[in-house]
Structure formats: C-alpha cells, structure tokens
Amino acid sequence: MSKVIEKLKNVGPGALVAAGFVGPGTVTTCTVSGASVGYTMLWALVFATVATIIFQEMAARVGIASQKGLGENIRDRIPNPVLKGLAIAIVIIAIFIGNVAYETGNITGGILGIQAVAPGIPMGAIVVVVGALAAIVMFIGHYSLIEKVLTAIVVFMGVVFLVTALASNPDWGAIVSGMFTPQLPANNSTGLMTAIGLVGTTIVPYNLFLHASSAAERWKDPEQISDARFDAVLSIALGGIISMAILVCAAANLHPLWTTWEVDGATVAGITTAAGDQIASAKINGQVMALALTPLLGDWSTWMIGLGLLAAGFSSAITAPLSAAYAVNGVLGWGKGLKDAKFKIVWAIVLVCGCCMAIAWGKSPTQLILVAQAANAILLPIMAFFVIFCANGKDLGKFKNHAFANIAGVIIIVVTLFICYRNMTNFLTSLQTLIGM
C-alpha cells in the first residue's frame, strides 16, 4: 500500500495530459456523439484511451531515458540532413496546423461557456478578452496557480458527469455493447466524422511533446520510468472514463430528444426540446449541453457547464500555444525558456491565429470544434510515427520499445489512417460548410 501511495504522490505529467484532452472539445464532441447516436460510439473512446496510454507512455519513456524533449529527439536521431530537414518541416507544419485548430476549439469553448450563462455578450468581445488574458498569463510566465485552479474546476465537472451518468439510469447493456462492438451508425453520414472527432479529442499530438518534456523534468533517473508509466496509465484512464461519462450523460438524457425535420426541402438533425424548440446538431451550445446534467443539478446545470467550458477552454488556450512553442523550438534547436523571444513569437502566432479563426467561423461554435478535433486526428499518424521512431533508438538501451509496443503502435497508426482515409470526404465537406457560413 505504501508503494502505491508513493506512486500517487508522483502523479503529474500524466495528469497534465489528461487535463489537456478533457477540454471543451471533449465536452462538445462527446455530447454531440451521445445525443445523435446514443452509446454506439463508445468503442471509439475506448480505442482512443488505450491508444493514448500507449503513445504517451512511449513519449514519457523517451523523454526520461534521453533527458530530452520529443522535438530534440527527432532532430538528433536523423543523421541525413535532407531527411532531417524534411522531418523538421513536417513537425512544424503539423504542430502549427494541429495547435491552431486546437486553439480555435479552445477559444470557442470559452465562447460556449460564457454564452451559456450570458448569451447576450458579443462573440468578438469574448474572444478578445479570453485571448488577451491568455497572452498576459503566458507573457508573465506565472500561470501555474491559475492553471491548477482551472484544472480543478474541470476535474470537478468531470466528477459531476460521472455522478450524473450513474444517476441517469443509462442502458448498461447498450453501454457494454457500445464499448466493445466497433460499429458506425446506420444511415448516418457523419458517423466516421464522429469517430475521428472522438479520437482527435483524446489522442492529442501536442500532448506527446508536452509529456516527453515534463516527464524529463520530473524524473531524472531512467529507473523511475515505472513511476512515469503508472502516472500515465492512471491519469489517462481516468480522463478516458470522464469522456465516456460525458457521452453516457448525453446518450441517456439528450438522445431521446434527437429528431429530424425538414428545412427548405433538406433534412436537418438535432434536438427538439420539451418546449418544442428545434436545435440543429451544429448549433448545440452550452445551454443545450447543460440538459445532460439536469438530472443531478437541475437549474444549476447551465452554470456548471458554462463554468466548466470556460475553465477548460481558458486553461487549454494557455497550454496549447506553450506546447507548440516547446515542440517547434525543440525541433529547431532554439532556446526553450519562457522568456526567450523566439519562444514567445511561436506561442503568440498560435494564439492570434486561434482567436482570428474563432471570430471568423465562430457563428457555429459546435461545428467549428468538431472540425478542429477531426483535423487534429488527421495529423495524429504523423506524430505517432515519429514517437515510434524515437522510442526505438538504440541509445535507449533496455528502455527502447519492445515488440509489443511496436506492434500495438503500428496497429493504432493503421486504424487511424483507415479512419482518416474513409472520413476525408466528410471532413472536407464539413470544412467547406464551415467556411461558407
């Protein structure tokens, strides 16, 4: 028992990863999935959680064994200058695209949170305030206390979802079937989009860079990798359970309200509330998400979902740009200090781009978040390949990947590539729809 308690005291980097993926994108994607297709897509969250544990463990192991971040490892392990330059370019482009998309979802999550309790506040004003506060916190560099407070709020919201899921009398048979029977909803053109969105909101590429660096800071002795593994498995598994609880809440309380109707000759799917209001899936906001918490919190549900979305969005709006700066500066061999000018330039670009995209396309925040999650998942196989490559370095000795880790990693990459390939048409259609709004 004392050993377990000692391991629990060392929980840290894994908890950051879990807090990173249980953000506004998770709440939105899981809510829309549960509301639209019930428990059917739980298997995607199970797959994503297991995949996250496998790849985050690799990243942490590489960081501890080499005492370098993932960016530095990628840079140092490719001797050919042409291939090294290509790898650096791929990482920079992928991280920038993924983090800008993710940052857009984070800022939009703040919009959803504030508008849930104060719908009259203009969207642009919210973006400016959230973006400015995030910039101030990152510029000063003393953001740890704020992040801990916001993370605690998000964790509390997660506990509320867990209790609400149990109090909602869910269909346990459907839950078990949804978890272990991979299937896509019949006659649902967005089924693959939903699957890849659930994967993209859980397996976050920039978390691989964050985990490697933070684990290297926490544990200096490679023999402590077992502690890092315990941290990763426990924290990420709990994060996955919270994500599943959000989906279960929506499936139990919102799916019965899911209907279709005709608008100008086109079929629209969404929620029809008890008052008869028809809300399309792309227009689901914080007030609608709050219906999933009503069985436990009643009238307080709107405030809870609003506070949770704002906290998740703001904390992630800080960590995403910082993670991009660590990754880009590491792979380019630049300084990684918070006060370094190049470091600040990188996070500033990600933050500004995220704010601009949120303002430009924020008229449909739910659709924007879903597209951002899907875009992130499409970039996942690239980053996963680099993690496996680094984890097989001969200099890692006994800490390099064993056969099981390599086989599991390759299977995950193949499955993700298949989902991305099959979903590309739906993704591009959704992106065109979003741009045209």
Description:
The protein is mainly alpha-helical and about 425 residues long. About 75% of the residues lie in helices and about 5% in strands. The protein contains 18 helices and three strands. A three-stranded antiparallel sheet has the order 1-2-3, with no helix packed on it. Strand 1 (about 260-265) and strand 2 (about 265-270) form a beta hairpin. Helix 3 packs across helix 12 and helix 4 crosses helix 17. The longest helix has about 35 residues, at about 80-115. The protein is globular and about 65 Å long. The mean pLDDT is about 80.
Overview features:
437 residues, mainly alpha, 3-stranded antiparallel β-sheet, 18 helices
Topology overview:
Blueprint: H1 2-9, H2 13-21, H3 24-37, H4 42-66, H5 70-76, H6 81-117, H7 123-140, H8 144-167, H9 172-180, H10 191-200, H11 205-218, H12 225-253, E1 258-263, E2 266-272, E3 278-280, H13 286-289, H14 294-297, H15 301-332, H16 341-361, H17 365-391, H18 403-435
Antiparallel strand pairs: 1-2, 2-3
Helix pairs in contact: 2-11, 2-12, 3-12, 3-17, 4-9, 4-10, 4-11, 4-12, 4-17, 4-18, 5-15, 6-7, 6-15, 6-16, 6-17, 7-15, 7-16, 8-12, 8-15, 10-17, 10-18, 11-15, 15-16, 17-18
